[in-house]
Write a structure and sequence with these properties.
With about 325 residues, this protein is α/β, with parallel strands linked by helices. The protein has a domain of about 190 residues: Alpha/Beta hydrolase fold, catalytic domain (Rossmann fold), CATH 3.40.50.1820. The chain is about 30% helix and about 15% strand. It is built from eight helices and nine strands. The longest helix has 22 residues. The radius of gyration is 26 Å and the shape is globular. It starts with a helix and ends with a helix.
């Protein structure tokens, strides 16, 4: 249910559904009200404020227990003073002789382990992908990160060792859709440039959902949709690094293109003016009949259906492109 609500919010692109071939403008719109069902979690009271010394009377305000349930006091113990190490305002642990002592690791050992972990993280962050490096653009109003289409990147990482992914940092906004989309194109382009410079021998994949799918198309094919500022595709030297691209529910979808997958029979609400040409050989654009945005339909459920229906095929295509040495 949580996923569904986020997506419904994420794809309120109906504010641009009325885009017309001439005199393009974005009509005003209002978002439907909604609520996310409460999923009750145990009350944790006040958050622990960190480790602090002091005497405690057991459970303080740090953890709330159901009415009628109590735990024995931990604040004192036989043969000891009862003073303890307090976890903020929460649990107080006795430090008397009767308490169980925790083993202490040698200081040098702890420092070496910590240093090893830090080095490993830095190596992972700077290492070049030996499989494929995927750059992922989420859909409108999804929380920052890779969004739901990031599931495809995760599947590829399991199937193709040495693969990794990163998210496009852009607003994913509906209220300023055109500005948001242009920002996404700029950021994805910068990520490709930076990664190609750092890892010239690595392969790159692009993934995008809804607004993110349009970003992928504009990066690879250039921006040619009515109402958007025209831009050229990425330069050939960068394009040669990209071996696969996945689009789900692309608003700039155009029927009859070789990269198309699915049952769509109509253009999207912001159809691309220029075909992708030879670049289409590395692309798969999934669009279902009735999809509100890529097929100019009225079925929002179709726009939300790609993940369960197409993730396996999308991941398989990327895997084949990597192993095929494109």
């Amino acid at each position: 249910m949580h996923r569904f609500v986020v997506l419904v919010l994420g794809f309120g692109l109906t504010n641009i559904c009325s885009a017309a071939p001439q005199g393009f403008s974005l009509p005003s719109f209002s978002m439907p009200s909604f609520s996310i069902p409460s999923q009750a979690l145990p009350s944790l009271g006040s958050s622990p404020g960190g480790l602090g010394s002091g005497s405690g009377s057991g459970l303080s305000s740090g953890l709330a227990l159901p009415t009628g349930l109590s735990l024995p006091s931990l604040g004192s113990s036989p043969g000891g003073s009862g003073s303890g190490l307090g976890l903020g305002s929460g649990l107080t642990l006795p430090t008397s002789k009767a308490s169980m002592a925790s083993p202490t690791l040698p200081t040098g050992f702890v420092k070496k382990r910590a240093l090893a972990g830090l080095v490993k993280k830095r190596q992972a962050a700077s290492a070049c992908a030996t499989g494929i490096h995927m750059i992922v653009a989420r859909g409108s109003t999804e929380a920052a990160g890779q969004g739901l289409i990031g599931q495809v990147a995760t599947a590829v990482q399991s199937a193709v060792p040495g693969s990794d992914s990163e998210a496009v940092d852009y607003p994913a906004s509906l209220t300023d859709y055109l500005g948001s989309e242009a920002s996404g194109v700029a950021d994805m382009t910068k990520l490709i440039q930076a990664y190609a410079a750092k890892c010239p021998d690595s392969k790159i994949g692009l993934l995008g959902y809804s607004q993110g799918a349009q970003i992928v198309g504009d990066v690879l094919c250039g921006t040619s949709e009515l109402g958007l500022t025209a831009s050229a595709p990425i330069e050939a030297s960068l394009l040669s690094k990209v071996v696969a691209a996945i689009q789900y529910g692309d608003p700039s979808h155009v029927v009859g293109q070789p990269q198309n997958v699915g049952t769509s029979t109509h253009n999207g609400i912001l159809p691309r003016g220029t075909a992708c040409g030879a670049t289409s050989s590395i692309m798969k654009s999934f669009c279902t009949s009735g999809d509100t945005f890529c097929d100019s339909g009225s079925d929002i459920a179709a726009h939300l259906s790609y993940f369960a229906a197409n993730d396996a095929d999308a991941a398989s295509f990327i895997e084949s492109q990597v192993k095929g040495g494109v």
